[in-house]
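Let us practice reading a record.
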Amino acid sequence: MSTDPMDEATEVWRALRDTLQDAGIHLTSLSVDPPTLPGSAYGIQLGRVAVPVAQKLTEVVKKHGGPGPDAAGHPVEEAQAAE
């Protein structure tokens, strides 16, 4: 991966776009979200989606998703960051 934050965000955006398309999901608003405050990081804007697209995304994530919530009901990634 690139060390330039914009290049890295673009690489992640492309990988996510391609992966979602392979799963039959097209997010029309998917884009790189530039930093809005000094010192903040780039993000990936998922945007607004139609209900059928959200249903398809839910199905794919449930079928192929990660470990799910921890014992307290928090997403595992969030729980690890809080430690």
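A brief commentary: DSSP finds three helices and two strands in the chain.
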